[in-house]
Structure formats: C-alpha cells, structure tokens
Amino acid sequence: MRVTLVTETYFPQVNGVSRTLGELVKHLLERGDEVQLIRPNYGAEAERTADREGDGTDGLRVLRVKSIPMPFYMELFLPLPPFGPARRAIDEFRPDVVHIATEATLGLAALRHVRRRGLPVVSSFHTNFDQYSRHYRVGWSKGIVCRYLRWFHNRTRETYVPSPTTIGELTTMGFERLVLWPRGVDGTLFRPDRPGRAAVRDALGFAPDDTVISYVGRIAPEKNVGYLAEALAQVAARAPGVKVILVGDGPSRPELERRLGPIARFVGYRTGEDLADHYAAGDLFAFSSLTETFGNVVLEAMASGMPVVALRAGGVGDTVREGVNGLLVEAGDPPSRFAEALLSLVIDPGRRVAMAHAARAFALTQTWDAIMGGLRDRYEAAIRPEAGVVALAAGR
Fold first, then answer.
1. Scanning 59, 95, 148, 263, which has its CA 20 to 30 A from the CA of 305?
2. What is the pLDDT of residues 39-84, one digit of tens each?
3. Across residues 192-205, what is the average pLDDT?
4. What are the pLDDT digits (tens) for 273-319?
5. How many CA atoms lie within 13 Å of 198's alpha carbon, on the beta-carbon side?
6. How many helices (DSSP H) and strands (DSSP E) are in the chain?
7. CA distance 235 to 343
C-alpha cells in the first residue's frame, strides 16, 4: 500500500499527536508499505535531530514545507503557501490513500488537491482547537473554528477519533463518519522499573521517602495548568514530604515556577529513554486538562506504574477508571477537590500501589501494534470504490 500522510506536527516536535503519527509511520513501514510524509520544516537545528532519528528510512519519502512558528503557540508551525511542491509530490507518489492529520493551511491545500484528483482521502481529529480559543482570548472565534473543522472532516471518507467521548461530542456537532482510533503505549519503554529512575530522583534532590507527583505535557493555559498549580500548592502545604516534577515547557512555566517554588522541579521537554526515566521517577500522576481528545501522557503514566488523578473531561475519562487505576474529579469542581483526591493517595501508599499495579496492567493491553493494525485495515476499506461513492454523496 502507498500512503501519503499530511501533518502540521511531527517529530522532532514533542506532543501526543507527533508521537502517535510517528508510531503510525513505523507500523506501516514494518508492514512493507510505502509512506510519503508531508510536514513542516522546523528549522536547521530541529531537522538535524530528525535526521539522526531515522528520517529518510527505506520506504519513507519526506517532503518538508516552509513554515513559521505561530505567535501564540510557538511550538506549532504554520506551513506557508504556495503548496505547489506538495501537490506535485502527491501526484508523483500516486498514493492509494491520503491521510490528512491536521486541518491548517497544509491540510486544507492537500484536501482540496486530492479531492480534485479523486484520491481516497481520510482524516483524523486530534485537537480541540475550538476549545483552545477561550484560553487565548479569542473566544469569539469558537463557532467559526467549529464550523470549519466540521466542513473539513465531513469532506473525507472517514475521520479517525481517539476516544468514545470525543466521538460523542463531535457527533452532536454534526461531524459524520467517525471511527474510533484509540492510542497505544510502548510498555517496554514506559515501565516503573526503569534503570534511570533512581538517578533522576537523586539529580532532582528527591529523598527516597518523598512522594513525587508528576505532570507531563505543555505548560500552557489550554492545559488548565493554573488550576493544577493551585491544587499542587494546597497538597504541598498539607503534606511536606510531597515533591513535584513537571516535564514539558510553555508560556505558563514562569508563573508556575513562581507559584510552586521549591517543591517543584521543571525539567523541560524530554524524549525517548530520558522521558521514560522521568516518568518512572514519579509516584502519582496529576492531569487537569479539559481539552484532551485522548491524553497520550495519561496512558504513558499508567504504563510507568502511576495511578492518575485527572478531571473527568474529554478522552481522559475513557482511560481513567475511577477507583481502579486512578481518581476522577468533576470538571466543575474547585482545585481544593483535586487536591483532596491527590492527598488521598499520598497518605495511603497501599491504595496508591494497588492502583499503580492496575494502571500498569491496563496500559499493557493497549498495544500500538494492534491499534495501528486496525487503522491500516480501515485504510484498505476506504480505498474500495464503493467507499468513495458513499463519502462523496455525504460530503459534497
């Protein structure tokens, strides 16, 4: 099979979408498929990192499109027109199916082109950009963004969505032909017995009997980190042996550093083995985002042997099982309620350890191979001529 993947985020960017798409490309190449990857150019230094990580593997063709960082979200790059090279590359590659993973300028140009060519095209929904609008003081744009996303995805043969909750939300908004495509985790990489666990804790100044609460992700308003900081500060005030490690970066980092002070360690973005060691250094995972379609970091934390305390919102509520592998706090509850949930596991190590074992056991059932194999089957179904007739009739 020849697959074209169009995305505005990919390695060396560090986020759940880029990791998911990296696993998809890896799976397709291992199955013997040919993959064309069209993505932004992230600059010379970042691209050297990408080359070291195997960009250009046999069977993989990569086209990097000129891009600029978005001013309100510097980690996100906006590809710049003209997109003639991308259109010509698609025509030359002659894909059996085109998968558009993001909906900005590059995704839109690709959608228009492949529909004109009559190529089978599918899409995936990863990010609630309509919900992000209020975090960046452009709440007035939410309706416009929602209408655009619906228009975009309803013009593809299928849209792959990471959680049942997100499918339900999108269905009520008028999205059509939605297919569940959950996320997996590498349980051999993310595990509690990582060889670097003790070294990370020592380097960060944690004592052996400290209870370490972890957060991994972008440190930004859309992740509701102000709420998290308030809850963590309350926990630290009531449990002096608690420490906090935050893996990631973003515009809210200076404010969180000020609010959390000496109890917290900010270590920036981490990848690969180093990231896995930092996960393993924690005892309990805290996640307060309200905008996740899935929340890859939650599954990685579980595989690393941590129970999760999270808000019951988006796809996270489909992964965390209340009282089994973590605790869920209602989205409208104050930070004090979130702090109480964290404290209940800080002061009861026996319960925390039991949940950690359940979290790890659940994560091990979510393998990337099975999940990506299921998606590949969907590709084959979308290629059939009758699939195109149905999609074109519904998405005209």
1. 263
2. 999 987 677 766 655 555 679 999 999 999 877 666 678 899 999 9
3. 97
4. 999 999 999 999 999 999 899 999 999 999 999 999 999 998 999 99
5. 3
6. 17, 15
7. 6
Which amino acid, 24?
L
Q: How far is CA 91 from CA 88, 114, 118, in A?
A: 5, 9, 11
Q: Is the pLDDT of residue 139 over 60?
A: no
Q: Is there a common fold for 2-184+367-394 and 197-363?
A: yes
Handedness of CA 288, 289, 292, 298 (dihedral sign): negative
Helix-strand-coil split of the chain, %, nearest 5: 45, 20, 35
pLDDT of residue 384: 86
Under DSSP, the state recorded for 94 is -
> Distance between CA 171 and CA 243 in Å, rounded?
41
Which residues, listed in sequence order, are joined to residue 246 by a DSSP beta bridge? 215, 266
**Per the CATH hierarchy, to which homologous superfamily does domain 2-184+367-394 belong?**
Glycogen Phosphorylase B; (3.40.50.2000)
Listed in sequence order, the residues at least 6 apart from 205 whose beta carbon sits closer than 8 Å to its beta carbon are 265
For residue 73, what pLDDT is reported? 62
Length of the chain, please? 396
H-only helix segments in the chain? 16-30, 44-52, 84-93, 105-117, 129-132, 142-153, 164-172, 197-203, 225-238, 253-260, 272-280, 296-303, 316-319, 335-346, 349-363, 368-383, 385-394
> Exposure of 332 by Cβ count < 10 A (0-12 exposed, 13-18 middle, 19+ buried)?
exposed
Backbone phi, then psi, for 121, in 5-degree steps? Answer: -130, 135
DSSP code of residue 96: S
Amino acid residing at 341? A
Q: Which CATH architecture has domain 197-363?
A: 3-Layer(aba) Sandwich (3.40)
φ, ψ of residue 92 in degrees (nearest 5):
-70, -35
Please indicate whether residue 394 or residue 120 has the higher confidence score (pLDDT): 120
Q: Are 82 and 72 in contact (CB under 8 A)?
A: no
pLDDT for 131: 47
Cβ atoms 289, 217 nearer than 8 A: yes
- Say how far apart CA 323 and CA 315 lie, in whole Å: 17
